[in-house]
Structures are given as structure tokens and as C-alpha cells.
Write a structure and sequence with these properties.
The complex is a heterodimer of chains A (232) and B (393). Chain A is built from eight helices and nine strands. Chain A is globular, with a radius of gyration of 18 Å. A five-stranded parallel sheet of chain A has the order 6-7-8-3-9, sandwiched between helices. Chain A has a four-stranded antiparallel sheet with strand order 2-1-4-5. Chain A has a single domain, classed as P-loop containing nucleotide triphosphate hydrolases (Rossmann fold), CATH 3.40.50.300. With 393 residues, chain B is α+β, with helices and mostly antiparallel strands. Chain B folds into two domains: 138 residues, no CATH class; 195 residues, no CATH class. In chain B, strands 1, 3, 4, 5, 6, 7, 8, 9, 15 and 16 form a ten-stranded mixed sheet that branches. Classes of the chains: A alpha/beta (232), B alpha+beta (393). At the A-B interface, helix 2 and helix 4 of A face helix 1, helix 10 and helix 11 of B.
């Protein structure tokens, strides 16, 4: 599903750099990435999503070498193949719940909004317990409800890959479990790959594999590569 | 495109107060110069048309503008009065027909125009109902008066007192409506026309009262001689002219000395007009003759100059407003950076996101322009009323 090889990345400013000789994530695998702040976890998600481009090496997602594509192609690929969930939910305040869920269909012509999409959005919303709140705005929702809306926005296009950046970071234990249940259930039902960046070690047992970026600094890049190379 | 417009519209609706302020500001920038231009154009057309149709006005020396506005548009401010003999003098000159005008009194807000039947033929006024006034105390009302007061031939209108405290002055006179004029979209629509003698009766210069020679008036008679009967204040005076009492109405003194506000002089030809005007050039004369079209042209020149100043001010204010609106938009973009980043992160195309932001501006401009167009249409439709309110009162 995801293959990274010989990746080197650094930002234009600052001395941060990320080197990943090899990383493979299998189709349908659920992976948690942990590690100290600033170790490059979120950067790795951005490289997989194509919102960041490595200076060298390649990132291949679902057989598509995203790191070699131009900006527009990466966006088209991302909106149809990758569902993204953020710690701060990132809902648009001026859209109600239903419009927030359908946002991907309105901001890229690759996706076409029709009655079946609306029906699917409403069905998922019903399933996760916010079916009666579709006309509410973000400021009328609880934290847990906001994150559920953000998760449905990621799921509604039925992507084969989910990237979640600390999706439970702002949630209480009950909502944390609820959001994780939704993500993992989707991955199971659709054989989708789920990669989650988290600081919460209490939830690691729910993932098939855990990548700890702390090892990168403890054992060096080569040992880290062996650690995270993953199943073939 | 539909999705882009939808998102832009949702943003504007959610921030409706900000949107309303922006729309109102831009609407005013667009409307003010255009609306002002429409008003000025209409006022120029309306004023010039009426003035152009009125060849000459004779009135007391003083403000030509006051004389013209009172005589043509029946403005409440009336000029110094002249004697009725001024009308006789114009008629006797053989150079022009003379139509007397006494525009001083009102019935509610409607001017009462004391004149002669020649006024109707001169302005080519036709009757929607009834006939011209034929008796003292009868009146003819304009179309707007008939509509606003709900009167028709056979009904009555009452003149208004000039002042409540003037006990010896103007008392209300009940006037019978003889006819209703067809609408002309001129100040005539808003006027009540009476014979000039009826206007003098309103002023109290002519009056009617019970016959003091009859026996039932005896208790009110103080002294009686062959030529004169002196009565006390309890003599019944009539405030309505009817067929029964019309014969008792009379005027004291010489009518030649009775007041007019103006004489509308209609020269027989151009040369006669020039000669007639020449007769009023004496600096010592107590009256003047004016060409209304010249007076109105001067007024319009003044209005146009004011208009230029206003438009210049609006352009400066408009530029400042547009600059402020642009600043607000740019600051808004900065505040919305996170929202824009989110859309781009999840795969939104740059073109669509940019189009959405542009659509917000376009919708605001279209809304503002549409409202400005509606206001301009309303101004065009009700312009004449606005002109009357601001220019003639």
C-alpha cells in the first residue's frame, strides 16, 4: 500500500531533517506512529499525503508515486484516495455539519456530488450518532461531535487510506474510544489502511503495528529502517 | 461553479452583518453619483419644461426666483404682492394676454391658485370630470388633490386658516368642487384652482353676511342712515358661498387695488414680448417682468455646480471606502488562512479555493449593484416628488 525508499526531507528553514531508508505499510494494515514531539511524525504523514515533497527518494501510495507528481495531480490523488483527520478538527465555521462532511466534493472537480453521496454522508452520520445534528454549525457541537464530523468528512469519499494526526488528542476517554472505533471499523470493513500519529500510549494496543520514532534517534537510521520496514 | 458559489454564499450568509455593511457601503458608492445625476436630470427636465411653457411673469420687484417658483410651482413662499391693476395694465397694452395669479392660500398642503379661466386654456388643461368654476366659491381640483382628498364634483374642500391667532384675518372658506382636472404630471395636479375673486374672499377682502336691511337683522343694527348701516359684531358672516347667499357677497373699495402674487403675460408675438419687457426696465418701477426659463436656467446652473462638488466628494469618499473594503478583504484572508490551508490539505484545488474567495467578492458587488439599480429606479420613478420636496418647499 505504502512504500517509502531512500527518503530525505528537510524544511527550507530550520535544521530539522528526516531520513527514512525504507518504510512499507501493507494494504489494510493499521499503524500507530509514536515518538517525541518534533521527531517528524506529522512530517511523515504530510509526505505520504503529498502535502510535502521529499528532496530525494520516493513515496508510493497505492501504486501511485505521489512524490513525483505535480501539485494539482497530488491534490486530485489525495482527495480521492486519502482521508485526513486532524487533531483540531478543522471544521469550517460557516458550514453546517452536512456541508462540512460534503466539503471534499465541493472543492475539487474530481469528485462529483450527487444524491448517493448525500445519502452515504447521512447514513454514516446516523451510524456514528450525529444524524440529528446535520443542520447544526460547528460552534453548536461538543468536542467529540466535532471530531466525529471531521472523521465522516474523511470517510465519505471512501478512501483506501486514512491518515490521522492525533485524532484523539483533544477528546475525553469516552469520545476517544468512540472516534477510534469509527476509524478502525472503517478500516476493517473496507480493507483500508490506517496510519495514526498519536502521543496516547493507551490506545496503541488497538493497532496492528506501532512505529516509535524514538528508535530513530536511539539506534540510528539503519536500525530504524529495520524496525519500521514492516511486513512484506 | 455551482459548488463554488454555494460555499461563497454560505460564508456571506453566516457573516451576514459584515456582508450587510459591505454591501451597503458599496451600494452607496455606486448609487449616490448615479442617483444624484438622475434627480438633477429630472429636475432640470421638469423645471425647464414648465418654465419654457411660461413666457413672461410680472410681479413685484424682488427675487425673480421666488416669483417664478411661486407662480409656476406654487411654492409656499410667496413674493411681495402687486395690485390687480398690473394685470389690467398688461391686458390694456395690447401686447399680451394677462392671466392673474394669486397663489397664497392653502387647503391642507395643497396650494389654492386664484386665477381666471384663461389659465386652463393657456396650459391646455382638460377635465377628467365636471366643468370649470363658474360661480364665486367654486373650485377645480387637480388629479392628485382629488385622489388624496377623495373629492369629486359636488363635494367640498375647505381652505386653511393662515394663522390661528389672526382673528381678523383669513377664515376657512368652504368651496364646492365644480370639476377635476385630468392628470398632467405637473404642479397643476396638486393645486386647487379658484377664481381670483374667491381667493380674495378667502383673504377676507370680499365677504357675505345677512341683509341688514331686513327686519330680522334689526337687533344687530347700531345706526342707520340713507347711505350707511352700522351693525355690531354679531352679524352673521357666511363661510360658504351658496346659491342662496351668493348675492350677499361683495367687495369694498376698488378691485384695481386688490392683491395678486403675479400676472402671467402671454405675448401676442415675440416682438410684443420684447416691447413689453422694455416697459419694466425702469429702475424706479415697483414691479418687474421675468422670463421664467432664464430664471430656471440660472437655478439649474447653481444646482449643477453643487452637483459637481457632491460628485467629487462622493468619488473621494468612494475611493476611501473601496480601499477600506479591500483592506477588510485582505485581513479576512489572513484570518482565514487556516481554513484555506485545511481545504488545500484535504485535496482542494487551488483554482477552486481561489474561485470561492473571488465569488464572495463578486456576489457582494452584484448585490450592491442590484440594490443600487433598484434605488436608482425608485429615484427615477419618484424623482418628481423628491424634486418638489427639496427644491420647491
Amino acid at each position: 500500500m505504502i512504500e517509502i525508499g531512500g527518503l530525505r526531507f528537510s524544511y527550507d528553514e530550520g535544521d530539522f531533517s528526516l531520513e527514512i531508508p525504507e518504510l512499507k505499510v501493507a494494504h489494510g494494515e493499521t499503524v500507530a506512529i509514536v515518538g517525541p514531539s518534533g521527531s517528524g511524525k506529522t512530517t511523515l504523514l504530510n509526505l505520504i499525503a503529498g502535502t510535502a515533497v521529499p528532496q530525494s527518494g520516493q513515496v508510493t501510495t497505492n501504486g501511485y508515486e505521489i512524490s513525483r507528481q505535480h501539485d494539482a495531480a497530488r491534490r486530485d490523488f489525495r482527495i480521492t484516495n486519502i482521508g485526513m483527520v486532524f487533531q483540531e478538527f478543522e471544521l469550517l465555521e460557516y458550514l453546517n455539519v452536512l456541508d462540512n462532511i460534503l466539503l471534499p466534493y465541493r472543492i475539487n472537480r474530481t469528485l462529483q456530488l450527487d444524491a448517493s453521496v448525500r445519502a452515504r454522508a447521512e447514513a454514516i452520520a446516523e451510524r456514528v450518532g450525529i444524524g440529528d445534528k446535520l443542520s447544526r454549525y460547528a460552534d453548536q457541537l461538543s468536542q467529540g461531535e466535532k471530531q466525529r464530523v471531521a472523521v465522516i468528512r474523511a470517510l465519505v469519499v471512501q478512501p483506501p487510506l486514512l491518515l490521522a494526526d492525533e485524532p484523539t488528542g483533544n477528546l475525553d476517554p469516552l469520545n476517544k474510544d468512540r472516534v477510534l472505533d469509527i476509524l478502525l471499523q472503517y478500516a476493517t470493513d473496507n480493507a483500508a489502511t490506517l496510519i495514526t500519529v498519536t502521543h496516547d500510549h493507551d490506545i496503541l494496543h488497538r493497532f496492528q503495528r506501532v512505529i516509535d520514532f524514538k528508535d530513530f534517534y536511539a539506534h540510528g537510521a539503519e536500525q530504524f529502517a529495520e524496525d519500521i520496514a514492516g511486513p512484506m | 461553479m455551482r459548488d463554488v458559489l454555494y460555499l461563497a454564499w454560505r460564508y456571506l450568509v453566516y457573516h451576514r452583518l459584515k456582508t450587510a455593511i459591505l454591501v451597503t457601503s458599496i451600494m452607496l458608492i455606486i448609487y449616490l453619483p448615479i442617483g444624484l445625476n438622475v434627480v438633477v436630470e429630472q429636475s432640470a427636465t421638469q423645471l425647464t419644461a414648465r418654465a419654457g411653457a411660461t413666457p413672461l411673469l410680472v410681479g413685484a420687484k424682488g427675487s425673480p426666483l421666488e416669483l417664478t417658483l411661486n407662480s409656476l410651482y406654487f411654492s409656499p413662499e410667496y413674493p411681495e404682492l402687486i395690485d390687480y391693476s398690473a394685470a389690467t395694465m398688461v391686458a390694456d397694452s395690447g401686447l399680451a394676454d394677462a392671466i392673474p395669479l394669486y397663489v397664497r392660500f392653502r387647503s391642507r398642503s395643497h396650494p389654492i391658485v386664484g386665477t381666471s379661466l384663461d389659465y386652463f386654456s393657456f396650459h391646455d388643461l382638460s377635465f377628467a370630470a365636471g366643468r370649470p368654476m363658474a360661480l364665486l366659491g367654486e373650485c377645480v381640483v387637480g388629479a392628485t388633490v382629488a385622489e388624496s382628498l377623495g373629492v369629486k364634483p359636488g363635494d367640498a374642500v375647505i381652505s386653511s386658516s393662515e394663522t390661528v391667532f389672526d382673528l381678523a384675518g383669513v377664515y376657512p372658506l368652504k368651496m364646492k368642487v365644480a370639476g377635476v382636472l385630468a392628470r398632467t404630471f405637473t404642479p397643476d395636479d396638486d393645486a386647487i384652482f379658484v377664481d381670483v375673486k374667491t381667493a380674495w374672499i378667502i383673504e377676507g377682502l370680499g365677504h357675505g353676511h345677512q341683509d341688514l336691511a331686513r327686519p330680522e337683522a334689526a337687533p344687530r343694527v347700531l345706526s342707520r342712515s340713507e347711505e350707511n348701516i352700522v351693525a355690531n359684531a354679531s352679524v352673521v358672516q357666511y363661510n360658504e358661498i351658496t346659491e342662496d347667499n351668493v348675492d350677499s357677497f361683495h367687495f369694498h373699495g376698488d378691485l384695481a387695488g386688490y392683491p395678486l402674487t403675479a400676472v402671467l403675460a402671454v405675448p401676442r408675438d415675440e416682438k410684443s414680448g420684447v416691447i413689453l419687457r422694455g416697459r419694466y426696465t425702469d429702475d424706479d418701477a415697483t414691479s418687474q417682468i421675468v422670463r421664467p426659463v432664464t430664471v430656471i436656467d440660472e437655478l439649474l446652473d447653481t444646482i449643477l455646480t453643487i452637483q459637481q462638488f457632491i460628485i467629487a466628494a462622493v468619488i473621494i469618499a468612494g475611493s476611501a471606502t473601496i480601499a477600506t473594503a479591500a483592506l477588510v478583504f485582505m485581513l479576512s484572508l489572513r484570518l482565514r488562512q487556516r481554513e484555506i490551508d485545511t481545504m488545500l490539505k484535504i485535496g482542494g484545488s487551488r483554482a477552486r479555493v481561489a474561485s470561492m474567495l473571488l465569488a464572495e467578492v463578486v456576489i457582494v458587488v452584484i448585490l450592491s449593484s442590484s440594490l443600487a439599480a433598484v434605488l436608482t429606479l425608485l429615484t427615477w420613478r419618484f424623482g418628481p416628488g423628491i424634486i418638489e420636496s427639496f427644491v420647491l418647499t
